[in-house]
Amino acid sequence: MNNYLFLIYTFVISFLLFSCTRDKIEIAVPTSHIQLSAPLDNASFDLDQMDVSTYAFSWNELPESGSTLVLSKSKQLLDPLNIDVGQVTQWSISADQMDQYLSTFGFQSGQVGTIYWTVKPSAQLKYAAADIRSLQCQRMSSRLLKPLDQSILQLDGAEPQLPVHFSWSVEGISSEPLQIWLGTSPDFSKKIAIDVDFGSGADITHQQLQDALDALGYKKYTSGSLYWNIYRVNEQQLLSRSSSNLSVLGMMILLDKRGPETIRYQVTRITYPDGTSLVWMAENLRTRLYPDGTSIEPDLVNVAPNSLGADFVKRYGAYYNDRVKVKAAPTGWRLPTVAEFEKLFYEASLVAGRFGVLKDSIYYENFDRSGGNANSWGLGLVSAGQWQGGSVVNHKSVYCYLHAADVEPWKCVLHDGGATLWYPWTDAATARYILEEK
C-alpha cells in the first residue's frame, strides 16, 4: 500500500511540475532602424591617398530631431564620438578631420585600424542601432618624428630644465623660420607657438611644457592630450598634414609664493578604488610666513634644531600652533579632515606594504621596508614627532603627528605605526594640505 501511495504521489508531483508554465519577461530594447547607404561595410579609408579630400556618409531616413553620425572603436559603440549633422541624410568628413577623429581614438600616425559607424536620431542617442558598419582606416603618415605620436610624458618638477627633443623631416623644403605649435586640439584653435631655428629638431624643457599647459588652461596635476606640429612661417602652413599627440602629466609641484619667498613642494595625487582622488602635499609645510607674505608670530611656529642635520630639518618642516594651522595654508589648499586621514590610512592598510606605501624611505624610521613598496603612493610621510614643552619630541621613531581641520582645539592626528589613528593634545604639529579642486 505504501508503494502504491508513493507512486501516486510521484505522478502528481511530476504532472504539476511539467504542467506549470513560467512567466516570460521580455525586455524591449528601443532600436533605431535607420539603414545605412554608404560607405559599404568594411570599406577602406586611406588618408594618405592625396586625391581623396573628403569621405561621404549617407543613410535612408531623416529623423524629425535630426541625425547624429556615431563613430566608435567598439562594435557595441562604447565611448562613441557623436557628430550632430542636423537635418540631412548625408554628410562629408574631410581627410584632415577624419585624421583628427582617428587621433582621438588613439590611432598613431600611419596606423591601420577598425572603427564602427552608424546614424541615430539626435533625440534618441541611447537607442540601439539596427545597422552598424565597419571601416578600415589608415591615419595619415606624419613628418613629425619625435616624440612619437601617442607618447606619454611626465614632466619632472624636480628637474624642470630637462629637455624633451622634438624632431621632424624637412626634406624638400627650403630654409625658413619655423615654430613648434602646441595646442589643446589638432586644429590648434587654442595654441602656444615657440620659435625655433630652421632645422630638423629642437629641445623644449619640461618647464616650458608646463608653462604651455598652464597657458592653455589644462587642469593642474592631471594628464591631458597636448597636440604638436611644426608651422612654416613663410608658407603659413603646417609642415605635417597629421599632428602628433602627447599625453602629458603636468609637474607634481606646488610653488608656494609668499612675499619674497618661494618654496617648491612635491605633491601627489592619490586615487582610491571608488574612483575619487585627492591631491596632497607630499612634504610638510616649512614656511614662517602667512600667504600674504607677513611673518607668522614667533610663538606660533617652530623648527627642529640644526643638530638633526639640514636634510632632516627641511623634511620635518615647521611645527605650527593650533591657532595658525588654517591661516598658514597655501592659497587654494586646505587642511585634511579626520575622515580624509582615516580613509587614507584605511585604504593603505589594504594594499601590499600597508602603511609603508605612505612613508618616506629615508625620513620615516622604524617601519617595514621589505616589500619594496615604501612611498609608492608618493606621499612621503616623515616621523617628525611633535613640538612639546619647548622642543621636538618623539621624532626619528614611529610617530607622525599632523594637523587636521576638524579635531578638537589643540589636538592633532597621530599615526604610531599601527592601524589605529590617535588624537592627542599637542603644543604644535606639522601640517600637510589638500588641493581645493573644483
Question: What report would you give on this structure?
Answer:
With 438 residues, this protein is an alpha+beta fold. Helix content is 13%, strand content 33%. The protein is built from five helices and 31 strands. The protein has helices at residues 2-19, 95-104, 206-216, 310-316, 338-349, and strands at residues 31-32, 36-38, 43-46, 54-59, 67-72, 81-86, 90-94, 112-121, 128-129, 133-138, 144-146, 151-154, 163-168, 178-183, 191-196, 201-205, 223-232, 237-238, 244-249, 253-258, 261-271, 277-281, 301-303, 318-320, 333-334, 386-388, 391-393, 400-402, 413-415, 421-422, 434-435. Strands 12, 14, 15, 17, 18 and 19 form a six-stranded mixed beta sheet that branches. The chain is elongated and about 80 Å long. The N and C termini lie far apart (82 Å). Residues 15-24 have low confidence and may be disordered.
Number of helices: 5
Q: What is the average of the pLDDT values?
A: 92
Beta-strand proportion? 25-35%
**Could you tell me the radius of gyration in angstroms?**
31 Å
For the termini, the CA-CA separation is: 82 Å
**How would you classify the helix and strand content by structural class?**
alpha+beta
Task: Spell out the key features of this protein.
alpha+beta
In short:
The chain is of the alpha+beta class.
Topology:
Blueprint: H1 2-19, E1 31-32, E2 36-38, E3 43-46, E4 54-59, E5 67-72, E6 81-86, E7 90-94, H2 95-104, E8 112-121, E9 128-129, E10 133-138, E11 144-146, E12 151-154, E13 163-168, E14 178-183, E15 191-196, E16 201-205, H3 206-216, E17 223-232, E18 237-238, E19 244-249, E20 253-258, E21 261-271, E22 277-281, E23 301-303, H4 310-316, E24 318-320, E25 333-334, H5 338-349, E26 386-388, E27 391-393, E28 400-402, E29 413-415, E30 421-422, E31 434-435
Parallel strand pairs: 1-9, 3-10, 12-19
Antiparallel strand pairs: 2-4, 4-7, 5-6, 5-8, 8-10, 11-13, 13-16, 14-15, 14-17, 17-18, 17-19, 20-21, 21-22, 23-24, 25-31, 26-27, 28-29, 29-30
